[in-house]
Amino acid sequence: MAENEEIIKKIYEAILNFNINGAEEYTKEAMKKGIDPLVVLNEGSIKALREAGNKFEKGEYFLPEIMVCAEAFQKSYKLLEPELLQRKNRSESLGRIVIGTVMGDMHDIGKNLVKALLSGAGFEVYDLGRDVPIQKFVEKAREVNADIVAMSALLTVTMQFMSTIIAALKNAGLKAKTIVGGAPVTAEFAQSIGADAFAGDALIGIEECKRLVGRREND
Ligand code: B1M
Fold first, then answer.
1. What atom of ligand 1 comes closest to residue 154's alpha carbon?
2. Which end of the chain is more exposed for a tag (fewer CB within 10 A), N or C?
């Protein structure tokens, strides 16, 4: 147990200290030991990115450093992703979800993680990527007859677009439910813009999407 914690700590430190190769190597080690990828993410790599963000806010890190931390995270995440995708293979689809990071926003790490877990849980996921124009959410939702439109935003200036997207979906007469997430998004904000659900982290996001399509928690 202590050994597992030690490896997770090494992943955390590698990401925070710009050690891209280290992030990759220690993640391989974690996988060999059979450590749950979600534990690696929550207690190692995501925690490291959040700490990098705190350092950025305090003026200890600047943008180039954040970019290297993000690159180290991605190296580690790419190794974990296949296992997340395979978590729960099922033949029947739980529903169709259109997901994207809103216009003006380049942050896609959280969105990609949510997407992988949604696919693993059995949803059909249509990923629009990042910096997605408002109308694209509407067009895709119509095209695939989406059950849910999931939006991610990491900037206080871009989270406002979630409200516009929800209004645009309604104006287009689409019945898709909406869910919002991303670091600055809160339950109060979600409620204020008329979103059907809010998720503060990826796992809650999956459960909320199941709830929106009328599935029980353990389905
Ligand atoms: Co930026 N950045 N960044 N950044 N960045 C933040 C968000 C910031 C909080 C840092 C800080 O100041 N402390 C700050 C925003 C301040 C604000 O507006 N409140 C900030 C800033 C200011 C900026 C720039 C403006 C910097 C600049 O240029 N001067 C710039 C903006 C560029 C743009 O978008 N137009 C910028 C750029 C970047 C990088 C490109 C360097 C890089 C992004 C790389 C990438 O994504 N490909 C980056 C990063 C890495 C961060 C931090 C450090 C980490 C973000 C992250 O990936 N977290 C971030 C600090 C922070 O968040 N505290 C910061 C890990 C990720 C797993 O969490 O995305 O929250 P998150 O997703 C979670 C949940 O929120 C939830 O589940 C996920 C997993 O648990 N969730 C959902 C998210 N979406 C969901 C959807 C759902 C359900 C759940 O639907 C079903």
1. 7
2. N
pTM: predicted TM-score of the whole model, two decimal places: 0.94
Chain centroid offset of residue 216 CA? 22
Scanning the structure block, which residue is given the tokens 């790599």? 45
> Residue 92's pLDDT band (boundaries 50, 70, 90)?
confident
CB < 8 Å & 24+ apart, contacts of 139-147: 140/98, 141/98, 141/169, 141/172, 141/174, 141/176, 142/172, 142/174, 144/96, 144/98, 145/96, 146/96, 146/97, 146/98, 146/174, 146/176, 147/95, 147/96, 147/97, 147/176, 147/177, 147/212, 147/213
Nearest-CA residue for atom 75 of ligand 1: 182
Residue whose CA is at the smallest distance from ligand 1 atom 5: 53
Tell me which residue has its CA closest to atom 87 in ligand 1: 181
Contact (CB, 8 A) for 149 and 141: yes
As beta bridge partners, residue 96 has: 124
**Ligand 1, pocket residues at CB < 6 Å:** 46, 49-50, 52-53, 56-57, 63, 66-67, 70, 104-111, 113-114, 150, 152, 154-156, 179, 181-184, 199, 201-202, 205, 209
Neighbours of 113 (CB within 10 A): 23
pLDDT for the residue numbered 1 = 66
CA of 18 to the centre of ligand 1 (A): 17
* Number of Cβ atoms within 10 Å of the Cβ of 174: 16
Residue nearest to atom 8 of ligand 1 (CA): 53
